[in-house]
Write a structure and sequence with these properties.
- The complex is a heterodimer of chains A (194) and B (216).
- Chain A is mainly alpha-helical.
- Chain A is 71% helix and 2% strand.
- Chain A folds into two domains: 88 residues, Orthogonal Bundle (Rna Polymerase Sigma Factor, Chain: A), CATH 1.10.1740; 87 residues, Arc Repressor Mutant, subunit A.
- The radius of gyration of chain A is 19 Å and the shape is globular.
- Among the domains of chain B are: 54 residues; 64 residues, Beta Barrel (OB fold (Dihydrolipoamide Acetyltransferase, E2P)), CATH 2.40.50.
- Chain B has a six-stranded mixed beta sheet.
- Classes of the chains: A mainly alpha (194), B alpha+beta (216).
- At the A-B interface, helix 3, helix 4, strand 1 and helix 6 of A face strand 1, helix 1, helix 2 and helix 3 of B.
Amino acid sequence: MILTEKLKSWFDWRHDQFDCERAMLAYAQNGNHKILDSLVNRLGDDLYFYLLSQSDNALAADISQQVWLKVIEKRQLYRVNKSVKAWLFSIGRNLLIDQLRMQNRWQFDELEIQTETEKLPFVASPEIELSQAQLLTQFECLLAALPFAQKEAWILQQEGFSISQISEITQQEPETVKSRLRYARAHLTMPTES
Amino acid sequence: MKKSISASEQPQPHTQYEQLKKRAPLPDHVKYRIQVKAKRQDPKLKSSFMSFKSWTALASAVLVLITGINIFEFGLAQNQMPIVQSKPQVSLDEAVTIQVIEPNLATRLSAEIITDRQAYLAFKASLQSQMAKLNNDYNQAQGEYEHYAKMAHLHQENKDVKLTLCDDTIKPVYLKDDQINKSFDALSDSESRLVQLVFNRQGKIVLIKNTSNTSC
């Protein structure tokens, strides 16, 4: 039992110690596929969820694949001192917008909350008790209802990006990013406040 | 029993976000495709694959060479084998039909085969003797002059010289008197004599000389 826990803590430590930037740098130099596998395991889910929240399963999977294939083919283009995650998200965002434009699905709403908000399954109030699953579904609906720009800024913040990194990824001024984040936060906490 | 929590105790958006993310991981088939692509692009594996390819190419080349030699040797062996007359494979019905249409077919075919075979053998013997003679002449000339030599009849016609080769393989050749490097006794007009022609390796006559031979 103790041994299992020790092993688990060692693996956790290994996981925490994984430095994406160093790994990417090594991959850019030697192209070792095992390093890329580690990067995919480490960052693949984050990128996929970001893309999924802005599109659908098929498109998110397709673009995730395209992003990683680009990383494989253009590994030499990775610049030292740049966040790998930010690089991946930038590539993913550009590909996503291109694809949405091609499919005539690109709607860049700055402030308009989508009508799905009105179709929320329930509106929480302090008197009503909700299960964890219900709360999660409610949150999912709220997140889905956010406009593209606000959702993007909020998700990127949850992914650990700073305001300046979000502004770099989205190619917007930091003030614009801050404003979007404010709107997003207000919208996502709306049910509890109402 | 379903666990319930009050709205005031509801989790932070970040926690909910992480929970949502856990529910939708990157699909395995996408991961697999990425891994396959990364493996294919791995320079280490690529180079080992290339060396494997080179070895395969070399092995294939050797195999083709060995097969080629075997086929060639088999062909040689076939050429040296005597001709064997095999019995025709015909059914009883066919045999009856043939018997009705041409009763002497078997006899005629056998006679034709024998005649053809004799013609073939004669041709082969003639070819072999010609080859032997050619080799002999060539070796003889090579020994003396390191050139190719042939016997020919020489006729003096005014200022020209007409050469008719003994083996009659080419048409008579006319040469101007001053074109010839002569080493033979002068001829009077309309006289004919047997001479030896010496050719160089390009087939050009370089010398006409006397010979002790009296006939071709």
